[in-house]
Amino acid sequence: MNAKRVGVADIFRRAGSAWRQRLRGGLDRGRLKVMAAIEACRTAVLGGHLYQCDGCGCEHPRYNSCRNRHCPTCQGAAARQWMEARAADILPVPYFHIVFTLPPEIAAIARRNRKTVFSILFRTAAETLRTIAADSRRGGTRIGGTVVLHTWNQRLLWHPHLHCVVPNAGFDVETGDWKTGSNRFFAPVKVLASLFRRRFLEELAKAHDGGKIVFGRDIGDPDAFRKAMARARGQDWVVYAKRPFRGPRQVFAYLSRYTHRVAIGDSRILAFDGETVTFRCRRPKLPGQRKPRYGTETLTAEDFITRFMTHVLPDGFHRIRHFGILANSCRRKTLDAARAELGENGGIPENQAPDPAGPETGRDDVAEPLCCPHCGTVLRYLREIPVGWKRAVSAGRDPPRPPAPGTPCP
Fold it and tell me: Fewest CB atoms within 10 A around its CB: which of 48, 79, 333, 344?
């Protein structure tokens, strides 16, 4: 198999059935739906449209995408549109990239209680930022921002954390006037981490007392939960807060790589031989090292699928949210008022240069030309290819297999 063409879908098609068989009865309907969608993506199973070349007579099918939010080859255009929409909202004020990371003890609880814990994470992180910014000793402003949830690291291991893109500007809490803060400093990370830890553990304890925490292998019983809470309360939580070196647009470009999919893109998968998967990943920095190190990771196909499927989100759960004065309900009004106050020359200009590498989005970022790949003649539309996939995923059956290459279109 050509390594350049290997993707998550190829791995699922060749090794997914054995993985599902091994975990039969232990998979929820949501994960089965995600696997079935990715396996069927851009194949005859989902139908499509058939074109013909008038020059050489060849037929060329163009199959539909699954458009599942976890698929690495879909919704590249949607991710790009999201990035451009966020870039259009950027104000000429200082921005900060702030990351809240859950410690291992709490991450283990989150793995079994995703909706509950992640909802607390979103709520308490936004509350922490609003509270610190509203403090009269630190500016006394009402702020807002955009928040994106990630649950993985470069090795696809469970690592829940929250990325926040926050303008250091807002409305004065007393006068209501627009204020622009420092372009070098947002708030001490120790202050952010301390308040975030306290409020998060308070909310998590309330959820536990209300019976919303489910126990599993990671957290076996209420006594283990209390011990995990005690350990988390006694350690420093990791909070990162720095001004983006190349401006907020670069951060949005980075986040857009995973706003409409999860964990890994096909471009990072280097090889798949049917049994093992090799992919590119970033290594932790060594002491004194300034630039990140890159290497490879090799896993069995089943381990790779397990790590990928760990990051499937619950149905209906939103990984992108806006808070404060940039919430969806008031963002337009806020931006208009801020631009009116700042004027054309107001505030501190940001470096708006896009990421030179570009967002790592799906294959549909590049529009496929409707011309014959053999002779270059413009293709003529023939007919629609009917959908061949019935969504019977809830029964736990394998999705229909895509036809072998060269098979005539249905």
Answer: 344
Contact 72, 217 (CB under 8 A): no
Q: How many CA atoms lie within 13 A of 183 on its CB side?
A: 12
**b/e per residue, 328-346, with b = 16+ CB within 10 A?**
eeebeebbeebeebbeeeb
Sheet holding 178-180, edge to edge: 141-142, 169-172, 178-180
CA 253 vs CA 46, 82, 294, 329: distances in Å: 30, 9, 21, 24
Give Cβ neighbours of residue 235 (< 8 Å, ≥ 6 apart): 103
Q: What is the pLDDT of residue 399?
A: 52
How does pLDDT run across 5-35, given as a tens digit for each residue?
A: 789 999 999 999 999 988 887 788 888 899 9
Return d(Cα 350, Cα 249) in angstroms, integer: 9
* Residue 279 C-alpha from the chain's centroid: 18
